[in-house]
């Protein structure tokens, strides 16, 4: 039986070092999350997910090598129980269109501006 006190194991991916640092700093300030790894592009994300088997992946949509959407689709095929949240610089209709396309890969998509206040610590 799984303990209710178990921390959520998170893998964070973003090609922007500043965004990656901000998200990680915020998650570290919350006791519910444990960052198990980070990735700088979609290919590295796939490698890190296979290595660490996180409960949750937070990924940027627009990254080199393989974008967050492509990586999310592959992750959902390989690890169906893994939750994937995509964040993006896109907003409004553009983000909703990409979220519909991503439905098979991502659990959710949200604009990056909602993460801009994540300067905890």
Strand portion: 15-25%
Domains (count):
1
Structural class: alpha/beta
Identify the quaternary structure here: single chain
A few lines on this structure:
With 121 residues, the chain is an alpha/beta fold. 37% of the residues lie in helices and 23% in strands. Residues 91-95 have low confidence and may be disordered.
Secondary-structure blueprint of this entry?
Elements: E1 8-13, H1 17-28, E2 33-39, H2 42-52, E3 56-60, H3 68-78, E4 83-88, H4 92-102, E5 108-111
Parallel strand pairs: 1-2, 1-3, 3-4, 4-5
Descriptive notes:
- The chain has 121 residues and is of the alpha/beta class.
- It has a single domain (8-115), classed as Rossmann fold (3-Layer(aba) Sandwich).
- Helix content is 37%, strand content 23%.
- The chain contains four helices and five strands; from the N terminus they run E-H-E-H-E-H-E-H-E.
- It has helices spanning 17-28, 42-52, 68-78, 92-102, and strands spanning 8-13, 33-39, 56-60, 83-88, 108-111.
- Strands 2-1-3-4-5 form a five-stranded parallel beta sheet, with helices on both faces.
- The longest helix has 12 residues, at 17-28.
- It is globular, with a radius of gyration of 14 Å.
Give the key terms.
single chain; 121 residues; alpha/beta; Rossmann fold; five-stranded parallel β-sheet
């Amino acid at each position: 039986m799984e303990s209710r006190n178990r921390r959520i194991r998170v893998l964070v991916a973003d090609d922007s070092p500043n965004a990656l640092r901000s998200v990680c700093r915020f998650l570290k300030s919350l006791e519910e999350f444990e960052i198990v790894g980070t990735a700088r592009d979609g290919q590295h994300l796939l490698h890190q997910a296979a290595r660490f088997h996180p409960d949750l992946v937070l990924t940027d949509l627009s990254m080199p090598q393989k974008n967050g959407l492509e990586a999310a689709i592959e992750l959902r095929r390989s690890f169906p129980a893994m939750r994937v949240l995509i964040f993006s610089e896109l907003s409004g209709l553009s983000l909703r269109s990409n979220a519909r396309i991503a439905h098979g890969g991502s659990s959710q998509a949200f604009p990056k501006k909602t993460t801009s206040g994540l300067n905890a610590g």
